[in-house]
Design a protein that fits this description.
- The protein is α/β, with parallel strands linked by helices.
- The protein has two domains: 80 residues, 2-Layer Sandwich (Alpha-Beta Plaits), CATH 3.30.70; 194 residues, Vaccinia Virus protein VP39 (Rossmann fold).
- Helices cover 30% and strands 32% of the residues.
- It contains nine helices and 14 strands.
- The strands form three sheets. It has a seven-stranded mixed beta sheet with strand order 10-9-8-11-12-14-13. The protein has a four-stranded antiparallel beta sheet with strand order 2-3-1-4. It has a three-stranded mixed beta sheet with strand order 5-6-7, with helices on one face.
- Helix 4 packs parallel to helix 5.
- The longest helix is centred in the middle third of the chain and has 16 residues.
- The structure holds S-adenosylmethionine.
- The site of S-adenosylmethionine has 23 residues, from helix 4, helix 5 and strand 9.
């Protein structure tokens, strides 16, 4: 990015529950970075965009924030902004076997530890979100016991889960996302990490029949629960499924649905985030 390129910062106060959605819309509209700060009873989003995209970013943020949202725009110098939103992104030490990190946050690896480098771009999945971290930990646990197989990552975002699976010894990875940007970034991130992921834009239905040794899906529950049976259909007889993006109170319902399909929960992890969301990840097999 040329240093002289004019940038604007769009500031909006928003309901904390809408912040992640608004941030995704801002990226979609052309923002290059989004910083979140705690406000009084709200989240303050600062979206940094090239000047030519700033109006579209403001419109996108206003559309999510709702009528009467307070939004302002100001010109910033490029040297001021890029570091601030990166400050919250640190290496995620998933386990003694795996670290996930952005390129700008170097990390010394323990002997035998592998790393996956994901540069924050438009697709979701730097490892910073609790649901991604839970999925990574469960995936690591499963692959430590059963590496070498085929992995399917549904809702791949940046591709972080599929790429981590390959780094941890999976033989092949297929990934899909409804968002074409995610499918593309997954391929690019895989190459950057020295792997190859067959990713496509679309839903699971578009995938020719086939079963996988490990199926992973980190989707919010309103997206995950409708496709739960279709995900289970893709699990090989001796395979496993990792589900994340669920909330803790949803465990009993998901457990019952898995049991009805012959799967039992083998591992469960949960994490309470700063916003009070209590995320749940499950690993199940027959
Ligand atoms: C929470 S992000 C997860 C990204 C990444 N896998 C991670 O763990 O960080 C969920 C992704 O699922 C995608 N998605 C939502 N519903 C989907 C569906 N039915 N099929 C495929 N992708 C879906 C979204 O576009 C989004 O990129």
């Amino acid at each position: 990015m040329p240093a002289s390129r004019p940038f604007e910062c769009v500031r909006v106060e928003i309901d904390p529950e809408r912040a992640e959605w608004a941030s995704a819309e801002a990226f979609e509209a052309g923002a290059a970075g989004v910083e979140e700060r705690d406000g009084e009873g709200c989240t303050i989003l600062l979206a940094y965009a090239p000047a030519e995209a700033a109006a579209a970013v403001e419109a996108a943020l206003r559309a999510v924030a709702g009528e009467g949202a307070v939004a302002t725009r100001e010109r910033v110098t490029p040297r001021d902004w890029p570091e601030t939103w990166k400050q919250g992104l640190r290496p995620l030490v998933v386990s003694p076997r795996l670290v996930v990190r952005p390129e700008f946050a170097a990390c010394e690896l323990a002997p035998g530890q592998r790393e996956v480098v994901i540069e924050p771009r438009q697709a979701f999945g730097t490892g910073a979100h609790g649901s991604t971290a839970l999925a990574l930990a469960l995936l690591d646990e499963r692959l430590a016991a059963a590496a070498g197989g085929r992995v399917l990552d549904v809702g791949c975002g940046s591709g972080v889960l599929a790429i981590a699976a390959l780094a941890l010894g999976a033989r092949r990875a297929v990934a899909c996302d409804l968002d074409p940007i995610a499918a593309r970034e997954t391929r690019e991130n895989a190459i950057r990490n020295g792997h190859s992921v067959a990713s496509f834009a679309g839903s699971l239905d578009a995938l020719a029949s086939g079963r996988f040794d490990l199926v992973v899906a980190n989707l919010i529950s309103s997206e995950l629960l409708p496709i739960l049976d279709a995900l289970v259909d893709r699990v090989a007889a001796d395979g496993a499924i990792v589900l994340s993006g669920l909330l803790l109170p949803e465990r009993a319902g998901v457990e019952a649905r898995l049991a009805a399909r012959g799967l039992s929960i083998r591992a469960a992890r949960d994490e309470l985030d700063a916003r009070g969301d209590h995320w749940l990840g499950l690993m199940a097999s027959r």
